[in-house]
Amino acid sequence: MTLEAESASLDAASDGKTAMEQGTPTHVTIRGLCKQFDDAVVYDRFDLDIPRGKLVSVFGPNGCGKSTLINLIAGLIPRDAGEVLFGGKPLRDTKFGYVFQNYREALFPWLRSIDNIEYPLKLMKLGKPERRARTERLVAHLGVKIDLHRYPYELSGGQQQLVSIMRALVVEPEILFLDEPFSALDYEMTLFMRDQLQRIFVETGTTTVLVSHDLEEAVYLADRILLLSRRPARVADYVRYDAARPRTDATLSEHDFVRVKAHCLEIFQREVRKG
Amino acid sequence: MKTRLDPYLPIVGVIGLIIVWYLAVWYEVVDKVLLPSPSDTFRALWKGMTGGRLGFDFWRTVERTTLATLIAAAIAIPLGIFLGASEKLYRSVEFVVDFFRSTPASAMFPLFLVLFGVGDETKISVAAFGAALVILFNVAYGVMNARKTRLLAAKVMGASRLRVLTDVMLLESLPQTFVGLRNGVSLALVIVVVAEMFIGSTDGLGHRVFESQQLFAMPDMYAAIFAAGALGYGLNLLFLLVERRFVHWSGK
């Protein structure tokens, strides 16, 4: 590819707005997002559309602001400028779930797992029977086989993260954010949890934004892979991956998967080299 | 390597101490008057605790220490939470707290004597003062060191500032609060026993130790020392058990 052609294709791809596929309505609209930490400009007039009912993986060079992006969207940290709308509504009118990387520090160890899951419902001032009913519905829906009357510290790492995902889902959020949810787990558990998350996504159809530091995982789970550049982060590419679900181990060796992953890796390495 | 006998290991030290003690008495390493035999001492301890003066003095010390610790906790726990909830606020009083925490509480006796007279109030209030600073410091740090992720998690689920405080910060600070309570009760006991020795006392373990020494009733003096040791150990153990029961997640 010539230099002009490469930059032309990058320009087309780097527009998070036009890369939207046909027929899928936009859920989250991000316009002119700006964020600066001390001297580092992390986002400068950043635009992005997140399609409804899809799973978007966020991938990019270390320290480019992957987690910062979902933290800005979910309001965990304030933005300097810009607008984020969920189906036209602001964040405060939107029910969302957020799953932290560090489940050990995100769950409440003084509550039994089931009470952890019900805690957001308690904040919504739902009565005990209603809370229990909703939790039991979720458990049945997801087919979770954990003894939820145990305390979080009595569960394995994967089970704890599953509990915190359920805590995020129990409010029936319109959008779910996950910040590197499996990076503290061992490889075996990671593979298992990937499929759990995929099942949850297929079951609920909730718009999901997943920050990942593992390209294989990012592609395997995603409908769209958002590739970010180094700071200030831009959309380096917004790649589609349409393989049917449920995806399995066999998916990992399919031509389409290998092709998309190779493409993402190429973009990623190009962005890394730019630094 | 772990064996079935491991739980009994602590007894080895106790038996060792008693043997050394018997040998010291047997070979008269120390003057017989100054060091009675273990059996004489434990006989004095038993007689004193069951119907003698020692039992009465023991409970007087328990009363004072408990009261001092309760007063200290009632003041220091709410204050520690209040100060710890705002790091800026705590930083602004930190030096004062650390200064008085480092000041030997015994140096405060004359001041408290002027304020409260020679009665029980002085002993209890000096002990409460010392214990309160230790508890305050621990509670405030417990609140300040609440895991940021946990606070954020509650906030993100829609918890108000007050809910974050009551549902997360308070519980987060509990393990550290118990550290403060254990240190506080130990310090309160030290201060109470010292106060009982010197400040116009007529009862209490400190008084018993001091009086036995004055009367050269050595078995009684050793008995009172052991009673004081058992009390300190017991109070610490009590708080540990309560902590294990209510702060089951501590260290996990």
| Major sheet: arrangement of strands of chain A | 5-6-7-3-8-9
Query: CATH topology of the largest domain in chain A, anyone?
Result: Rossmann fold
Q: What fraction of the residues of chain B are assigned to beta strands by DSSP?
A: under 5%
Identify the most extensive interface between protein chains: A-B, 20 and 21 residues
Could you state the oligomeric state of the chains shown?
A: heterodimer
Give unreliable regions of chain A as ranges. Answer: 1-14
Any chance you could write out the topology, listing elements then pairs?
The complex is a heterodimer of chains A (275) and B (252).
Chain A: H1 3-14, E1 26-37, E2 40-51, E3 55-59, H2 66-73, E4 81-86, E5 96-99, H3 103-106, H4 113-123, H5 128-142, H6 157-169, E6 175-179, H7 187-204, E7 207-211, H8 215-221, E8 224-228, E9 235-240, H9 255-274
Parallel strand pairs in A: 3-7, 3-8, 5-6, 6-7
Antiparallel strand pairs in A: 1-2, 1-4, 8-9
Chain B: H1 9-26, H2 38-49, H3 53-85, H4 87-102, H5 109-116, H6 120-144, H7 148-156, H8 161-198, H9 205-214, H10 218-246
Helix pairs in contact in B: 2-3, 2-10, 3-6, 3-8, 3-9, 4-6, 5-6, 6-8, 7-8, 8-9, 8-10, 9-10
